[in-house]
Amino acid sequence: MDIRRAAEIDFDFMWPIFREVIASGDTYVFSPDTPRDDAFAYWFGSGVTSYVAEAEGRIVGMYKIVQNQPGLGSHIANASFMVAPSYSGRGVGRHMGLHALREAKRNGFLGMQFNFVVSTNAAAVALWQSLGFAIVGTLPRVFRHAALGYVDAYVMYRSLESDEAERLFALPETHKGT
């Protein structure tokens, strides 16, 4: 798997993944009818650094890193991830998660925070916990799940300064590019 910085031209391949991921209404706050221009701005707007994961000659996932907050909160990263549903369960999310943590640390961030992880998205919660994130808060009934109605979302956080983080970043690279 190759993970590299996304170029705007990649959006033609990212857009179908975005639409497919949000269509189910169970993991992201985007409405299933989110316009293409809004999705483009999400991945390529000001202050956004996006990456794509490629396998078998095609884009199979993407993630972005931004400052979690401006100004005095700019030392903490925030990230969002999407994997093509046809590649779910193949380790794409884990590879991108490791890459994102390394990139965030390399760019001087001291931690990474996810502000809105849908509590019923068990695969995402388990992945982030396996990469050292902790649930630091629960937002009650803030997500309108397409099938389950109102469910909680988690705020998750991990430091990029600890000895554990240093061991994580010392692992062999799981991708070719950055």
Features:
globular, single chain, seven-stranded mixed β-sheet, 178 residues, alpha+beta
Describe it for me?
- It is built from five helices and seven strands, in the order βααβββαβαββα.
- It has a seven-stranded mixed β-sheet with strand order 1-2-3-4-5-7-6.
- It is globular, with a radius of gyration of 16 Å.
- It has 178 residues and is of the alpha+beta class.
First and last CA, distance:
12 Å
Please report which band the strand proportion falls in: under 5%, 5-15%, 15-25%, 25-35%, 35-45% or over 45%: 25-35%
Largest sheet: 7 strands, mixed
Mean pLDDT: 93
Number of helices: 5
SSE topology sketch:
Elements: E1 2-5, H1 11-23, H2 36-44, E2 49-55, E3 58-67, E4 76-83, H3 92-106, E5 111-118, H4 122-130, E6 134-145, E7 149-159, H5 163-170
Parallel strand pairs: 4-5
Antiparallel strand pairs: 1-2, 2-3, 3-4, 5-7, 6-7
